[in-house]
Amino acid sequence: MAPTFDSQTLDAYVADASARIAAAGDLAALASLEAELTGRRSSLGAWHRELGGLEAEARRELGRLLNEAAGAIGVALAARRTSLSASERTARLAADRLHLDELEDLVAVAPLERGHRHLVTRTRDALEDVFVAMGFRVEEGPEVETDWYNFEALNIPPAHPSRGMHDTIYVDMGEAESIVLRTHTSPVQIRLMEAAVRDGSLPLHVVIPGRVYRRDTPDASHLVEFHQIEGLVVDKGITFADLAGTIRAFTAAYFGEDIDARLRPSYFPFTEPSAEFDITCTICRGAGCRTCSQTGWMELGGCGVVDPAVFAAVGIDPSEWSGFAFGFGIDRCAFMRHQIADVRALTDNDVRFLRQF
Ligand code: DAH
After folding, report:
1. Is the CB of 324 under 6 A from ligand 1?
2. Beta-ladder partners of 265
3. pTM: predicted TM-score of the whole model, two decimal places
4. What are phi and psi of 166, to 5 degrees?
5. How far is the C-alpha of 46 from the C-alpha of 13, rounded, in Å?
6. For the segment 218-243, what is each residue's pLDDT rounded down to a tens digit?
7. Most exposed residue of 79, 153, 265, 338, measured as fewest CB within 10 angstroms of its CB?
């Protein structure tokens, strides 16, 4: 059987194929062109199948020519593929490039906001700074306490109202001993005195900031979870005058020289004598206003001379050592200094409020 193709047919086929390959506009067009020119249904495919029916010599000669033609088309395809993919990549990169001038609008509507520490944290830090400058060390203690530390060692007898279910959150009312969320920072006084007795490191001059819990219904001046800062000095020859001087120095340093402090006799089981301390109303600065019920004063916390019963509980000899203690609300300080009408704003986490401080 005579072959239906020869070297001229193949040359013309390769020339036509090369021209079409060079004209292919993108990689997808090139892929379909490749199938059309070299696939099973192409002329090349048909000529290949024809080889089997040829005389041996013609088969060898035409087979070689056919392979050359296929090779030439393959080279043209590869070259075009390389150049098309390079230009497609360039086009894609150009499309992806950020045009910063066009981003201007986006930048204007979505600036990156920088956060800051919460008002209570800042207040705590500022209070610590004042006390550290006065020679106090800062200590902390656990928020979950035993009955002994939260009450008993502080000379709070079982019948004392602060032990009632009313304001204490009990974690475990065990037979042997109840576990509570501490209702004040005072139990840390006991822990630090015990440790100081253990390693003979008295005297103590410490402040103890931290979170405390009460089973209260939140309102404008009460939170279930709030913060206190406790102070404790145990040294030789400490008197009530040292306490009064410390409170006054602190008040002036933290609230300003025009804000004064006064002490009113009061009662706490762990101090004797005890006092509550007031500061000049920070809203009217002493003139009398609605917030201070026209008195010109605001209550800040409690204080007193450490009760000998407390020293006895931790094994400190009251004939050798004496001391004073105080405790007040950190949230309350923030709220007085910044004249916040409702303490709940401190825990609502409304950024419009928090951003102001
Ligand atoms: N722990 C008391 C309370 O939460 C406050 C207090 C009063 C602390 C007198 C003291 C103190 O250290 O001496 O109500």
Report:
1. no
2. 275
3. 0.69
4. -50, -50
5. 13
6. 888 889 999 999 999 999 999 999 99
7. 265
